[in-house]
């Protein structure tokens, strides 16, 4: 199943890159990811980390949620068993796209299970300009860094932040954190 998803990720990146008339060099320059790595991902030979995939998606003008959204008929209902799930190979964090795919909504909802001690950095990226997100913590704890500011979140807390500024997700606790990301793409 994971190998199928890796191939699907590579195929989708290649398809989007070609649709936008971008060469591997163009996408590498826009994303800050090496041409060789993008090529390996497109061929299904490498599994991108969350940070790397976010940079490639931003360069393609997509959020991670939009990238993982199933193509095909739109439906107002997203059943749990049909939701796209992806595990970051570096940190083991599990990302579930909750929003119904194919709708005209500019809001994406993502459910995340973040392992104890895990850390993911998303560098600032101009392609994400105008996108905002809310991080709503259900279980565990999170330290969210935006710029030089560190916010410590406990269950029930919600943090708003622009996506383009870059940020670091860190679970300093000894148990997994579970949170929801509500991504608003209206400002793009």
Describe this structure in words.
- The protein is an alpha+beta fold and 188 residues long.
- It folds into 2 domains: 2-67, Orthogonal Bundle (434 Repressor (Amino-terminal Domain)), CATH 1.10.260; 74-184, Jelly Rolls (Sandwich).
- Helices cover 26% and strands 29% of the residues.
- Strand 1 (85-87) and strand 2 (94-97) form a beta hairpin.
- The radius of gyration is 16 Å and the shape is globular.
- The relative contact order is 0.15.
- The mean pLDDT is 87.
Give a summary of the structure in a few sentences.
The protein has five helices and ten strands; from the N terminus they run αααααββββββββββ.
The total of beta strands comes to: 10
What is the topology, as strand order, of the major beta sheet? 1-2-3-10-5-8
CATH class of the largest domain: Mainly Beta
- Percent strand equals 25-35%
User: Largest sheet, if any?
Assistant: 6 strands, antiparallel
- Unreliable stretches: none
Global structural class: alpha+beta
What's the architecture of the largest domain, going by CATH? Sandwich
Helical segment count: 5
The termini sit apart by 33 Å
Give the CATH topology of the largest domain: Jelly Rolls
- Name the CATH superfamily classification of the largest domain: Jelly Rolls
Order of helices and strands: HHHHHEEEEEEEEEE
Tell me the overall shape.
globular
Helix proportion of residues, in percent?
Answer: 25-40%
Provide the domain count. 2
Radius of gyration over C-alpha positions, nearest whole angstrom: 16 Å
Mean pLDDT: 87
């Amino acid at each position: 199943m994971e190998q199928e998803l890796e191939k699907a990720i590579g195929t989708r990146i290649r398809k989007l890159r070609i649709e936008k008339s971008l060469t591997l060099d163009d996408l590498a320059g826009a994303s800050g990811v090496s041409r060789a790595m993008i090529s390996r991902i497109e061929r299904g030979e490498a599994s991108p980390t969350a940070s790397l995939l976010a940079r490639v998606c931003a360069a393609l003008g997509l959020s991670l949620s939009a990238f993982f959204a199933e193509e095909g008929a739109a439906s107002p209902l997203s059943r749990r068993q049909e939701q796209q799930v992806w595990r970051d190979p570096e940190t083991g964090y599990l990302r579930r796209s909750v929003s119904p795919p194919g709708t005209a909504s500019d809001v994406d909802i993502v459910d995340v299970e973040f392992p104890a001690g895990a850390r993911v950095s998303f560098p600032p990226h101009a392609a994400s300009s105008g996108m905002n997100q809310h991080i709503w913590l259900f279980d565990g704890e999170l330290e969210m860094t935006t710029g030089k500011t560190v916010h410590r979140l406990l269950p029930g807390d919600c943090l708003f932040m622009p996506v383009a500024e870059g940020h670091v997700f860190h679970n300093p606790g000894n148990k997994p954190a579970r949170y929801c990301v509500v991504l608003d793409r209206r400002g793009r």
